Amino acid sequence: MAKEAKARIKINKLLEDSGWQLLDSPEKKANVLFENNVKITKESFDALGENFERTVNGFIDFLLLDDKGFPLVVLEAKSDDKNPLIGKEQARRYAKSMNCRFIILSNGDLHYFWDMENGNPTIITTLPTPESFKQYKSFVPNKQRLIDEICGNDYIALTQDPSYNLNPEYINPLTRGEYFERTGVRIMRPYQVKALQSIQRAVKDGAIRFLFEMATGTGKTLTSAAVIKLFLRTGNARRVLFLVDRLELEDQAQKDMVAYLSKDYKSVIYKENKEDWRKAEIVITTVQSLLFNNKYKKFFSPTDFDLVISDEAHRSIGGNARSVFEYFVGYKLGLTATPKDYLKKANEGEQREYERRLLLDTYRTFGCESGEPTFRYSLLDGVRDNFLVNPTVIDARTEITTQLLSDEGYSAVDITDDGEDAEEIFRGRDFEKRFFSDSTNRVFCETFMNNAMHDPITNEIGKTIVFAVSQNHAAKLTQILNEIAHRMYPGLYNSDFAVQVTSLISDAKSMTIDFRNNKLNGYSRASDIYRTSKTRVCVTVGMMTTGYDCSDVLNLCLMRPIFSPTDFVQIKGRGTRKFNFSQCIVGDKELKAQYAKCEKTHFKLFDFFANCEYFEEKFNYDEVLKLPQISHVADSPDSTPNPGLDKYEHTGTDSVSLLTETKIGLEGMRIDRMFFKKFEENIKDDEFVKSAVDARNWDAAENYVRKEKFDKPDDYINLEKIKRSLSIDRRISVREVLEYIFGLIPKIKMKDEILEDEFEQFIDDNKSRFTEDVDIAAMRYYFKAYICDSKVREAIDKKQYGELNVLSSFTMADFKAVPNGWKQWIPEYIKNYVSMNRFM
Predict the structure, then answer these.
(1) pTM of the model
(2) Which CATH superfamily is domain 143-151+187-377 in?
(3) Which of 263, 483, 701, 773 is most buried per CB count within 10 Å?
């Protein structure tokens, strides 16, 4: 009893803090009843599926009344050593008897809010105010409307311009692109529509929390806007809170929401509308702003928002920020660009284990305990669907960084303060922390300037982001870059070719926005009609690593070592967005038309510390990996730090020791290919599949995989995605995939390998027909062209051989080189004996 009394004292205080009147006063009548007697009738039990023949008396711990004195909320109290959820069914009966829709379950420390018309109890960190209940009571969500809402690719476009499809500019395919550019009307991509539909399916299944894992550049904000419209339009939300973790993302989100939804809904940034944020359906703010002085508790009630969206969720709900996120009841959507597939379990205390826990916690927070998001769209998906671009990696190690990265490290000998010789081993992680080399920094900058991608219209150095070790390192690099630019382009830049964009720099936030909007330090002087930023390079440490959208970036420079796969994926993502450079041309329609197809097809990733090699070849994705810890001394297991040699300045020269250029193809980097590995592990762990494959019961195995594994909301994996993940250039079958996963075949063969196998079989089947002078090479070329090229096949089958004159893949000359007799027999053989489906 003492524990329950203690809990009730706590609850009394919480109710008072939230504005409830516990006792009558001259100004106001009490709106809380204690130990209110209630008769639970037979009808109340019947409604719950019970079968009682008599009326039962009960006592409601706290009954909260509305401003007219009618029952509003049943508050069931439990002692502080009990989970308040144990009172759920008892509270439900009381609420049914009192005709209450709302229940609060509390033990004084832990509280649940339950709207019985909308899902399950959810944790709250403070009790709602009477005013918020007044508003919330009028809100009656209708899940079925949300589930049944038609969501096509024009879901956002219909808000931007309801009659867009009647516009002559849109109707005419030749002017449709200009219409979209002029109006900003956005047609959603197929995967964005699938993401929206995954929310509908999840709600149908009873979910109230969702997680989207979408690669950088795939339009998370546009997809979020569609989700917001879905909830607001169907009446399942009155107001939405959009949480970001950086100021520049706050402005960017507001700009996007205005562009996408302002015709139907109002959005505001909270800090600019502190007094009248309630006028808007969408409120955008940083987590830090609400955390400061517990602002979220002072100025908001838990029921003020019915949908909370957390951008870059694994960061914006970490640590203290979680209290903001969990404070509000209702639906929750998390967005992240960071895949977790490669974050296997590591040792306690390691950075990798910290990241793994952070991401897994994110998945649990959003109701994805299985580790599968509500929807996933990876970088590889984006590249292969032609929505994103891959990098060309420039591996540019210097003599110094090569030594720092070697197993032996860089050995430095110096004299300590007491006059003794001291030897220290420095490694990559020590660069610009304990090991300094001005000549190395100069080599970095010279190499970049001499090999950078250039703007295709002005031929200036393309827009670039340089990632430095520290703020001091960023200052050094910025100075060196400006010196080189002054030498290479005298008079064109006045120390504004490169700028430092770090937290110590005033107006750094607005600098990132101006760089994105192509006006940092003014417009380029290279052209009067082309709007691109005069500043070409931003040197940062962490400000522009995540959530920063600058689509026309052509170069990323890693002038620091990276050990975190999360950081590597995020930084690489700054360059993956596509861009059409003609959109920066103003006032010259002819020039704009000339450059209409001037698209960004790739970007350069300058890697001075072998980061790409590390994540491609050395990073252990499956076993425990001991990542280096940040410290002030070398922490390699192979070296013993000498406290007498704290810092070392290399005063000699440095030069490039390796300069290679590797274009990343559709297969992507290894860090991007972990998608298939997860599917492979899932299949290997499935007992039904294993037994079917062991018995060689392929029909059963294939049917099961198609029905139980493909096109599920977790990740929508299917044969096409597997084909892309494995970089196979032909149609594949489920059986091939299973044979490969279970080691029955060493690999899934590419198209040309299959063609060679088929041609060898053709030769073996027709040995008796061959003569010594037959041209095998011409026959092989004909055999492959007939299978792979539909135009060649059509010309041969219809005997319209003249059509071959206009084909480049197989010409009339190639056809004439095929020996007589074989011209007819090869197509006949293929039709009878070769399965053409595999080559489509």
Answers:
(1) 0.58
(2) P-loop containing nucleotide triphosphate hydrolases (3.40.50.300)
(3) 701
